[in-house]
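Schema walkthrough. Field components (list of strings):
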Amino acid sequence: MPEPLLPSGCGRSYGDSGLNADGALIDATGLDRFIELGDDGLLRCEAGVTLAEILDLVVPRGWCLPVVPGTRWVTVGGAIANDIHGKNHHHLGTFGTHVTRLELVRSSGERMVCTAEANPELFAATIGGLGLTGLILWAEIRLQRVAGPGIEEERIRFEGLDQFLAIAAEDAQHEYTVAWVDCLRRGRRLGRGVYFRGAHGARPSGWRPLAVEPRVRVPCDAPSALLNRLTISAFNALNYGRAPRKRSLRAVEFGSFFFPLDAIGDWNRLYGRRGFVQYQCVVPEAAREAIREILERVSGSREVAGLGVLKRFGDRRSPGVLSFPRPGLTLAVDLALRGRATLGLLEELDGVVRQVGGAVYPAKDARMSGESFRAFFPAWATFARQMDPRFSSSFWRRVSGS
Ligand SMILES: Cc1cc2nc3c(=O)[nH]c(=O)nc-3n(C[C@H](O)[C@H](O)[C@H](O)COP(=O)(O)OP(=O)(O)OC[C@H]3O[C@@H](n4cnc5c(N)ncnc54)[C@H](O)[C@@H]3O)c2cc1C
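Field assembly_structure (string):
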């Protein structure tokens, strides 16, 4: 088998932390068995089980995963390796916060059960460890009790960043919060968007299974002319206009609140053959002006910026040595890939984030420099000591120069 090795889940990471050019990927999706679900909500399953399969099992029983990302097609191993976050970070922190135990197999064949007490350094390195500490075989996750299989959703329009921050100040009273932002607006309307807040609640017709394929699928790569600043601006204006002027509450499906993109199979093809990049950063809240600067640079450029997502992360400490989430404001922007101009803009944005002590999310990256990585993740050398000597990834070789 070629080396180095790297585990692989559903392949939903946007960048190269899930890739291993010239090495071998270990497909972990065959580790797909549930092991135990206790009355106390402690779930043990193999690492290739998807979040969709878990939700289908536990939500009808009154439980929910404590943290879910923007897609249900993520394995437990992938969720741990990127220490993923969701719309309730301000409330429950990251996915890894709720992992009580896991078993790792190293390339030497040694199997190690890791917890906060047993092999704690390896445990902390594996959470958010980008698959580089070994193959996770199974994990134990503490689920949370929920009021029902649906979501009570509130939508609030905001005109710009200051209004966003005023609404975000109320986050503590809401289980889930996230905002959609128009990244093409400038001037007075810079950063305008729609704030979504939600809480678990009843859904009249029960639970609709998630582990099924989407009904609509993008059949081929769209022509590159389809998504441009004009069409996206029009789409954004429509989206903004559709949100009610006054705060409004409605009951929605679990899937449409958490996983709107999953409704469209192969949605990435809308960006055409050259594809897109997603840029996600976090900056300390005191440096909120950095978010304004990033939005100004994106909207003032000629880049085709699609969906933007803005959220306040809470203060709960992430358990992983390399975990991305930290207190502050996180912004994620999709940009059609137009070659050097796009990459040049992202390099500029890295500079803004570095200056204020923020970080860029490795799960969404395929281009950050080693210098930026070391500034964003100062504990990288501590992490490197826990790596499996025969594991590596394209991302790791790029940022570590090894
Ligand atoms: C539409 C969409 C929305 C998203 N929304 C969010 C979001 O809201 N929040 C967020 O944090 N992320 C989000 N993501 C990113 C996604 O959650 C992460 O990239 C996640 O890690 C993908 O899991 P995967 O199973 O596809 O793993 P892969 O992408 O295949 O791999 C991810 C990493 O996990 C490692 N890995 C996989 N299996 C194992 C294993 N068994 N043992 C050890 N390591 C393993 C791999 O080596 C790799 O480093 C989103 C992605 C998409 C496409």
